[in-house]
Design brief:
Distance between the termini: 46 Å
Number of domains: 1
Number of strands: 8
CATH architecture: 2-Layer Sandwich
Shape: globular
Largest sheet: 6 strands, mixed
CATH topology: Peptide Methionine Sulfoxide Reductase, Chain A
Number of helices: 6
Structural class: alpha+beta
Radius of gyration: 16 Å
Length: 172
């Protein structure tokens, strides 16, 4: 069987985002048209090869994050940020989402390219100026750093554990 030249030439892009507990973020983003794959993990800290235990209580500097592989012909990075990322969590709560508190739950964007950084800055400013949020946006734009995949039991957590805890939902 030979592979299709169209499938073979398909371009993908990667976004790394943090918006509180990674379970709920993954659950929402995995079904967005254009998203090809999601993986939860840790990034933005100083501990090498962190575990879930290392990350909690702000001990490692890492954020619980999601790495999203997407098809930019279907979903642009700008659309991913503006219409999904900034709607699925409260970007005005510093180091917290719902009952989850600590720097590991910060709202952060980790651009993978210079173009993504410019787009992230533009979208964050637009969201701030929109007046949708009554408090200032606390979302940081942080340098891309080493990605560490979370333990297997965290991957697809809410699919494995229906009804599990999540403070994420799409806001109008």
């Amino acid at each position: 069987m030979t592979s299709s030249p169209v499938a073979k030439g398909k371009q993908t892009e990667v976004a790394v985002l943090a918006a509180g507990c990674f379970w709920g973020v993954e659950e929402i983003l995995r079904d967005v048209p254009g998203v090809i794959d999601t993986e939860v993990g840790y990034t933005g800290g100083w501990v090498e090869n962190p575990t879930y235990a290392d990350t909690h209580h702000s001990k490692s500097g890492h954020a619980e994050a999601i790495r999203v592989t997407f098809d930019p012909a279907v979903l642009s990075y700008e659309d991913l940020l503006e219409n999904w990322f900034f709607r699925l969590h409260d970007p005005t709560t510093l180091n917290r989402q719902g009952y989850d508190v600590g720097t590991q739950y910060r709202s952060a964007i980790f651009p993978q390219t210079a173009e993504q950084k410019l787009t992230a800055e533009r979208v964050r400013a637009r969201v701030e100026e929109s007046g949708k949020w009554k408090r200032p946006i606390t979302t940081t734009i942080e340098p891309a750093s080493t990605w560490y995949s979370a333990e297997d039991y965290h991957q697809d957590y809410l699919r494995k554990n229906p009804g599990g805890y999540s403070c994420h939902f799409l806001r109008d």
